[in-house]
User: Fold this.
Amino acid sequence: MSTCLGHAIIAIGARMNVPPPQITRVTDSRVSCDGAHDGIPTALGHPRVYLQIDEHGYVDCGYCDRRFILVGGPADLPDGAADTDIASGASR
Assistant:
């Protein structure tokens, strides 16, 4: 049983270092996501969710991991990605 648990911990740790599949720069701190991007039609996406970008300057969709970065915010770096991932509910 500890082997199974060990594999689960490794899989979770590996997941945390995977970059989000798509980054979208936005001008409003309130955004919606329905999974319709990268050629995926709305009908094959996910339920529409409304997300609020916080003081870190970005938010990730819980369904598809799409990252929304606020233009001019702290996460709006020249390469278009946040420098660090902040876990939900965590503080710096």
Notes: The chain has a mean pLDDT of 77. The radius of gyration is 15 Å.
